[in-house]
Amino acid sequence: MGETNKQVPVTVLTGFLGAGKTTLLNRILTEQHGKKYAVIVNEFGEQGIDNDLVVDADEEVFEMNNGCICCTVRGDLIRILSGLMKRADKLDAIIVETTGLADPAPVAQTFFVDQDVADRTKLDAIVTVADAVHLSTQLSDHHEAEEQVAFADVVLLNKIDLVDESRLDAVKDRIKKINPFAKIIHTTKCGVSLSEILNLDAFNLKRILDTEPDFLTSDHDHEHDDDVTSLSFVSDTPLDMEKFQDWFSKLLQTKGQDILRTKGILDFKGENDRYVFQGVHMLMDASPMGKWPEGKERNSRLVFIGRNLESMNLKEGFENCKSA
Amino acid sequence: MKADSNKFPELNKTKFENRGKEFKFGIPVTNAITIGNSIAVGFGDGTVRIFRSGQISEPIKAHSGVVLSISKDGEDILTGGDDGRFLKISLDGEIKEIANFGSRWVDHVTAYKGSLVCTCGNIVYLWMPNKKEPKLLEHESTIGGVAFDSKGRRLAVSRYGGVTLWKKDYSNKWSSSNLIWKGSHNKVIFSTDDRFLVTSMQENQLHFWRLKDKTDSFMSGYGAKVKSFAFVYDSKFLVTSGSNEAICWPFDGNGPEGRKPICLPYVGNKPVTFVEPFPNENAIFTGLSDGSVFLSEIEKSTNTIIIRSFTESEVTTIAVTEDCSSILIGDIGGNILWTSIWDEEEK
Questions:
Q1: Residue B238 domain flag
Q2: In this structure, is residue B257 part of a structural domain?
Q3: B104 at the A interface (CB within 8 A)?
Q4: What does pLDDT average to in each consecutive run of 10 residues of chain A (324 residues)?
Q5: Option in B102, B141, B183 nearest A60 (CB)
Q6: Cβ neighbours of A86 in B, within 8 Å
Q7: What distance in Å separates the CA atoms of residue B126 and residue B149, rounded to the nearest whole number?
Q8: Would you say B145 and B162 are in contact if contact means Cβ atoms under 8 Å apart?
Q9: Residue A43 Cα, gap to closest chain B Cα (Å)
Q10: Which of A50, A63, B172, B246 is deepest in the core (most CB within 10 A)?
Q11: Is the dihedral of CA A104, A14, A19, A309 positive or negative?
């Protein structure tokens, strides 16, 4: 089928109202050089979007009857993405702007769950625009702000000209605590090179290996139970595959609602390949990704981002997966 | 003929292809509608082309984006596009804009004897014959599909959570009732005898309601979403895509509950992407993801003939002329085959 089979990358733009999503969107659209983008906007857009292919969407979150209790998808995206794929002119990228109060999970889950969407498009990255002045308050006041940071592959920390250095560091620490993976980019008026936010392929398992995220074991203070935090674990002892699968699948089944994102690179006893996985709530994408590189240490690293992580006995569970 | 080509008939052009006409547009074919012995075809660049006796009209520049939906009102074509326009197009190519919703898409269109319907988001816009202003029927979520029954008295609107069934009384007032089933419902159709209502769902299954007592059940076991389905032969069967076989559910008597479907396999074992009834026969045309198209009799599965060999592009539409003399096949790669169904001596 040639061209029609190529997956079009989809970038999801999240962020609270006033953070600068529309500014970023218009920057992307005006800086494009001969690229064809479709922009899916929501009805609460802040100002005009200057593009010839703007699609209005109502954010409709659907529950799926697929036995996955927390599995919701964005029905409007399924409809619009499959419609866009029928176009004669091929799109270079699709950008989805979400409302300020949107939970990014249903958007991400749509790309795991809907086969048509997964066949023809791919989730490129979740880019969260955050207002350096207001983010701390928003994180304390709104679950949605925490989720948007937790799901982000890139956090565009905007309006840094309006805060002093110590306040900026505090905001950055707060972001890192929630999401150690996210790349933080400082901007004023969303001035950022497009190559830093588009075509990142952040959901590709290969990229997890390339980016070598910071998997340092985290030692952290006890947070409020419903704060989003992250925990990471490293083991130099190879893991027992059966034990790990047993523990991990039970964990996601029972705690999937509180576990927002997971990523990991695993070293299983008796296996020559590296196993890489990533997940959104209860949904997982996992695959062996070739042999361990020569001269590099073999170890297992995994990270959880979520709520109430302290109550899940993650350390103990992970320790129990080590091969005897 | 060599032994090889007997074994793999799909490697050769079929007699239908040899005597038909092939067109290569390179633009995805999105849908088609039969009007008498003409067939109007919608494309992914917003154009509509009309085929008649193997001849093709000039492209009609209907929409600026995709022709998302197509239907007819008498001799006129109705289209909805991702440019937000709802259009009525004559077979001569004259375009009349009925409504324009800007950046909101016109997802579905249908009509019954001069009553025109389009949907945009969660609203059904209904123009009664000769009325300038539409009636607005609002729903809680975006509409997945819309269908009139055979008498035009009921309008089924599928959506998240079930179907809203609108009923017109004799003073032309519409009232609604709900058929509830959890999940997101897409395309909806009435059986040709109006006894059943069937929807396809976001999950890989279909749901149906027996309208006289509103009992409902589902048809599952599919490997993919069921995007194409239709009733054949006075609603004796519901034929469906969504599997590597055409799945034909019995809808005579009380319907399919507790009964097994007939499954029609095809050479190549590729997913079925489009099914189209052979008018007035217990037979269907089946289009596959590799572009091949077959004609099969439902209860005699050995009686299958290949109409089109593969093009490697998923079949997106099949339409048959009203006199059943010709068939049009379109695919996602923009290939169209127009051919006569009967051999000269069979006519």
A1: yes
A2: yes
A3: yes
A4: 66 90 87 84 66 80 76 91 91 91 90 91 94 91 91 93 93 91 90 89 77 55 68 92 94 91 92 90 88 86 90 92 87
A5: B141
A6: 28, 30, 44, 66, 68, 332
A7: 15
A8: no
A9: 11
A10: B246
A11: positive
Task: Look at A75 and B184 and tell me if their CB atoms are within 8 Å.
Answer: yes
Count of A-B CB contacts under 8 Å? 77
- Dist CA B28 CA B51 (whole Å): 16
In a domain, B12, yes or no: no
Token pair 């997956």: residue: A7
CA–CA separation, A280 vs A105, rounded Å?
7
Q: Is A147 on the interface with B (CB under 8 A)?
A: no
User: Taking CB atoms and an 8 Å limit, are B202 and A114 in contact across chains?
Assistant: yes
* One pLDDT digit (tens) per residue for chain B, 347 residues: 344 444 454 457 899 999 999 999 999 999 999 999 999 999 999 999 999 998 999 999 999 999 999 999 999 999 999 999 999 999 999 999 999 998 889 999 999 999 999 999 999 999 999 889 999 999 999 999 999 999 999 999 999 999 999 999 888 889 999 999 999 999 999 999 999 999 999 999 999 999 999 999 999 999 999 999 999 988 899 999 999 999 999 999 989 999 999 999 988 889 999 999 999 999 999 999 999 999 999 987 678 999 999 889 999 999 999 999 999 999 999 999 999 998 876 55
Please enumerate in sequence order all residues whose Cβ is within 8 A of that of B105, keeping only pairs 6 or more positions apart, or say none: A55, A80, A83, B68, B80, B81, B82, B84, B120
Report the candidate in A208, A215, A182 with the shortest Cα–Cα distance to residue A196. Answer: A182
Q: Is A39 buried (19+), middle (13-18) or exposed (0-12) by CB count in 10 A?
A: buried
The Cα–Cα gap between A324 and A322 comes to 6
Contacting residues of B for A91, CB less than 8 Å apart = none
- Phi first, then psi: give them for residue A272, nearest 5 degrees: -85, -20
Instruction: Give the domain extent around B229.
Output: 221-341
Domain A2-203: give its CATH code.
Answer: 3.40.50.300
First to last CA, chain A: 50
Identify all chain B residues contacting A79, using CB atoms and an 8 Å cutoff: 107, 142
Q: What is the ipTM of this complex?
A: 0.88
Interface test with B, best of A4, A63, A86 (most B CBs within 10 A): A86
Least Cα separation, residue B235 to chain A (angstroms): 29
Residue B333 belongs to a domain:
yes
Nearest residue, CB atoms, A62 vs list B65, B121, B202: B202
Domain definitions of chain A by residue range: 2-203, 210-319
* Nearest Cα residue in chain B from A53: B103
Is any Cβ of chain A less than 8 angstroms from the Cβ of B142?
A: yes
Domain of B251: which CATH number? 2.130.10.10
* Contact (Cβ atoms closer than 8 angstroms) between residue B79 and residue B42: yes
DSSP secondary structure of B107-154 = -EEEEETTEEEEEETTEEEEE-TT-SSPEEEE-SS---EEEE-TTSSE
According to CATH, the topology of domain A210-319 is: Hypothetical Protein Yjia; Chain: A;domain 2 (3.30.1220)
Q: What is the DSSP letter of A48?
A: -
Total structural domains in chain B? 1
Chain A residue numbers with beta carbons less than 8 Å from the beta carbon of B333 are 1, 4
A-chain residues near B82 (CB < 8 A): 55, 83-84, 87
Verify whether the Cβ–Cβ distance A64 to B202 is below 8 Å.
yes
Is there a contact between B203 and A65 if contact means CB atoms under 8 Å apart?
yes
DSSP assignment, residue B244?
A: S
Are B200 and B229 contacting, i.e. CB atoms less than 8 angstroms apart? Answer: yes
Residue A32: count other Cβ atoms within 10 Å of its Cβ.
15
